[in-house]
Amino acid sequence: MDHRSGQKSAAQYLYPPLDPYDQRMMDMGEGHHVYVEQSGCPDGVPVMVIHGGPGGGCSPAMRRYFDPRVYRIILFDQRGCGRSRPHASVTENTTWHLVADMEKIRVSLGLGPVLLFGGSWGATLALIYAITHPENVVHLVLRGVFTMTEAELDWFYGGGAGRFFPDLWDRFTGAIPKNEQADLIKAYHRRLFSGDMAEEMRFARLWANWENALASIDTPHIASETPSEYARAFSRLENHYFVNKGFLDEDRWILKNRHRIEAIGADIVQGRFDMVCPPVSAFELAKGWKNARLDLIPAAGHALSEPGISAALVQVMNDLRSRPWGPKPSAR
Fold it and tell me: Per the residue annotation, which of 101, 267, 274, 295 is the catalytic one?
């Protein structure tokens, strides 16, 4: 069945559930211990899976986009979220810490150049790592592109998406006094880091629910309450990164440095109706990049779990199996 028909659930396109053959906690220094796992083929083509958020954490379903006979699948929870510790911590937690963590994981596992697979913030981090370490990346597979620009943040937290979902926007903004609503990221920051746990939890759920409710084209709704512990890590980390503009030196940093990765191939899968990360970012990233292929999925939004998105990503990874990337680990 064509993945664009939308007749199947996402799970039907995925490989069967898979258990990891290796799980470890890596000491990254500065008090952070990062969860890392490996599954699939130990001698296979290494693919590093980068979850979204920031603060989302990885899930078992993320192992299932790859042929386990071909790929060595590496998942990790970024600092402060998932199984990494300390939980919900923003201390020594910046984009550049995460880039260094990825490099430490690659070297510690004895890998040469890797394939990067990331969506949303995961696409952002994949691009930043590739720009910083182009020699260590063989290919990029990106979904729901977010390039950490002021325009993208303004769309989602400045009222753009709210014009399509005024009821949900009213719920998100209504908890903030009118005199603070001109900068909702900062207003939420004050409350997510107030030191009052009850207040932090309340605003964490509001922050997480606003994004989760708009993630899928099929289910825009006032979401049920996000589990508190997950919501606190997700919301604090995401807000911490956004209030600091991703810790990048200037606006549009990724786009201004794209020339550093134009020799690397990229497959970009983007929902045509993505309300969290609108398609203009993916289009702008791919425009003029000869080695990039953009696939706009007609009836899809932002979520990895959408049928059209999942089907397209599995197809990309299956197509890439024929590429001449040897499954030989690095000699280091």
Answer: 274
